Amino acid sequence: MNGPDYYIPAVAMGVSLVCKVPALRTNWRDPLLRSVCVLLVLAGAVFTFAAPPTIEAVNGWTGIPNVSAPLVYSLMTAFSASCLVLVFNWRGGPAEEIRRTSQRWIAGYFVVVVAIVVLFALGDAPVERLRDFDTYYANTPYIRLMIAAYLLAHNAAVLMMVSMCWRWSLRVRGWLRTGLVIIVAGYTISLAYDAAKMSAVAARWLGHDLDYLSTYLAPPLASGAALVSSVGFVLPLVCQRVSDSWHTWSTYRRLGALWHEVHSTAPSGSPCVRMSWWSPAEIRVIQRESDIHDGFLRLGPSFDRRHRDTAYERARAAGADEETARAVADAAMVAAAVRASAADPEGAGSDDGERVLVLAEGPRDLVRISHALRHSPLVAAVRRQTAPAGG
Question: How far apart are CA 280 and CA 86, in angstroms?
Answer without folding.
Answer: 28
